Amino acid sequence: MTPQEYLENKQKEIVGLEKLLTSIPAIAPEGEGDGETKKCDALEAWLKKNGFNQIERFEAPDSRVSSGKRPSLVVTIPGKDDTKRIWVMAHIDVVPTGDLSLWKTNPWEVVEKDGKVFGRGVEDNQQGLCSAAFAALYYLENKITPAHTVKLLFVADEENGSEYGVKWLLKNTKLFNKADLILIPDGGDSQGRTIEIAEKNLLWLKVHVTGKQTHGSRPDSGANACLAACDLSLRLHKLEAFFDKKDPLFAPDYSTFQPTKREKNVDSVNIIPGEDWFYMDCRILPCYSLKTVLDKVEECIACVEKEHGVKIEYECPQKSESPATSKDSEVAQKLAKSIKKVHGIDADFIGIGGGTVGAEFRREGYDAVVWSTLDDQAHQPNEYCVIDNLIKDALTLIDLCMTS
User: Fold this and answer.
1) pLDDT by residue for the chain (404 residues), tens digit each?
2) Three-state DSSP class for 68?
3) Active site (annotated) includes residue 93
């Protein structure tokens, strides 16, 4: 039986796994959820029922959830060569539903319609999870040994920073080898063409400006923290012109410094505020180090402090930088060949402005790529997964693991 025939015959079971996983919310404490334990238990039971007998469970301690643990699973399919393994990593957790009035169906009950399945998590990231599971099941049920050992990693806490997922695993286990090939099916496009190999460096700033509060009619007797904050946010935005290199790997192809959130300061129009808080979201090309950027940020702060007579402090709620995976790396080239074979298209290598767990691997010296065929439904109401995409991605994974 060909992989195509096998997966088409398994379509009902694939949708069944989507239904099972969707029915068990796995939301982090940050989203007022109780973590992944119940969903992980159900997934592990499904894997064992379907013949997977090499399953390891890793649990990061977290007192905020009722089980006290945030679980991740590793499923092993032994290959002819174990010196380098092919990892396929999907995450178990999902985001909250958001405004339920925007949903046309119950987000926790899968509805199948027009070649799609609807429900929270069906694409992000259960599409990648189910594709990986059924690609591995093809080898298992047909008694085929893949060219390399295949490792499926179903991980916790991807949606809220991976402290209890990939970061914890990298710090507390020795699961990975530098020769391993790591694929994360959690981003892509509707054709399955783009392979993400790099991310912009991420820098969030929370800025606190302290001046002197006074009456609106006497700005001369105070120090307007709001005015100073506006001046600084504009200066920081203009750093886009200072860090002006471009890289066609990314869209947009330049570094961005954008003021975003502001916090409440005073309660009345006729009060000049003595304190003000604002935030910046900065996505910076990898050619610039965050230290270089922060040095320039501090220059801007010093100028505004001197000009406005205020005190400015800042912190970095998020700060992340990582090297790129080379487009000539083995995992990138092998995946591109499988995409060409299964999808009939030439892959494009891209960088993104957002953050993925790929960066966590790259920082530790592992080659990792992010790829999938999806309609970019992540975090949206009425989230759906195209069943044909799920099957094509499984076919691509089967081919990727079949070649030496």
Assistant:
1) 899 999 999 999 999 999 999 999 999 999 999 999 999 999 999 999 999 999 999 999 999 999 999 999 999 999 999 999 999 999 999 999 999 999 999 999 999 999 999 999 999 999 999 999 999 999 999 999 999 999 999 999 999 989 999 999 999 999 999 999 999 999 999 999 999 999 999 999 999 999 999 999 999 999 999 999 999 999 999 999 999 999 999 999 999 999 999 999 999 999 999 999 999 999 999 999 999 999 999 999 999 999 999 999 999 998 989 999 999 999 999 999 999 999 999 999 999 998 789 999 999 999 999 999 999 898 999 999 999 999 999 999 999 998 76
2) coil
3) yes
Angle between helices 11-22 and 387-402 (to 10 degrees): 110
Of 18, 62, 93, 186, the active-site residue reads: 93
pTM for the whole structure: 0.88
Residue from 18, 123, 158, 196 carrying the catalytic annotation: 158
240 is catalytic: no
Alpha helices by DSSP H, 309-357: 330-343
CB-CB contact of 156 with 92 (8 Å): yes
Please answer whether residues 278 and 265 qualify as being in contact, where contact means their C-beta atoms are separated by less than 8 angstroms: no
